[in-house]
Write a structure and sequence with these properties.
Helices cover 40% and strands 9% of the residues. The protein contains four helices and three strands; from the N terminus they run E-H-E-E-H-H-H. The longest helix is centred in the C-terminal third of the chain and has 27 residues, at 95-121.
Length: 129
Amino acid sequence: MRNLTHHHVNEMNEALTIEVVDEPGSGGACHRYDVTGMDHLKNESATRGVPGKLVVLFQNGPILEHGVNGVTHEVLLAILQDRLEGFQSGPYANEYNDLALQHVIAAQSVLQLRTKERMDRGVEGTHTV
């Protein structure tokens, strides 16, 4: 098991831990990621769902009002980055996976820039634009 930290940029994302639970499969990528550090009971959407289905809960409401109650785009991009890096280290390495990986890394960077800018303005964790 190992932890991912590609998503760390602020308190919200640092509160969420991504643990890679399984070993890479035949394609070189892992299949199970446990995300912890959120209180899903504070997320209104957690009451909707079907047993037996994986539910990805995104943050619902400002962190300062509702706490960390779901995942962010940065968390999912960190998982995608890890999977694509796994594929690129295995038998499925190709130019398409590489291009997708570069775009995922770029998307993560842009979202982190946005968060840092909001932190600098003192509005991160609020609904202020």
